[in-house]
Amino acid sequence: MNAVCGGAARTLRVPGRHGYAAEFSPYLPGRLACAAAQHYGIAGCGTLLILDPNESGLRLFRSFDWSDGLFDVTWSENNEHVLVTCSGDGSLQLWDTAKAAGPLQVYKEHTQEYVQGSYVVK
């Protein structure tokens, strides 16, 4: 995972995770959220990484694990600590970086998947 902060490329290696989406905080300069998954998102769990820049690169501020791969992330427009991620199980997770545990809430409304001309109920 690479990020450019202040003109210099910064790198943080997270063994066993592959980054899918990254988003800089609109509130805190340099703070970066990254949605990641194991095994390229085909199987395994996911991790939300919250990163801050430091002199030697990026420092892990906080991380949250989820039971399925995380594929996208975005910051709340109303709260500097809140993010939303989406995962391979069809759910959305609401996270608060001010708290060490999470998620705050899970929205799982997706119950069908369209596959080759018909809906498949999960």
Whole-number total of structural domains: 1
Secondary structural class: mainly beta
Task: Profile the largest sheet.
Answer: 4 strands, antiparallel
Task: Tell me the helix content.
Answer: under 10%
Q: Which sequence of SSEs, written as H and E, runs from N to C?
A: EEEEEEEEEEEE
Task: Kindly identify the CATH topology.
Answer: Thrombin, subunit H
Rg, alpha carbons: 15 Å
Order of strands across the main sheet: 3-4-5-6
- Helix tally? 0
Counting DSSP E segments of at least 2 residues, the number of strands comes to 12
Q: Which band does the percent of strand residues land in?
A: over 45%
The poorly predicted ranges are none
Can you offer a commentary on this structure?
This protein is mostly beta strands. It has one domain (17-107): Thrombin, subunit H (Beta Barrel), CATH 2.40.10. It contains no helices and twelve strands. The strands form four sheets. It has a four-stranded antiparallel β-sheet with strand order 3-4-5-6, with no helix packed on it. It has a four-stranded antiparallel β-sheet with strand order 7-8-9-10, with no helix packed on it. The protein is globular, with a radius of gyration of 15 Å. The chain starts with a strand and ends with a strand. Its main location: cytoplasm. One of its GO terms (biological process) is protein import into peroxisome matrix. GO terms for molecular function: peroxisome matrix targeting signal-2 binding.
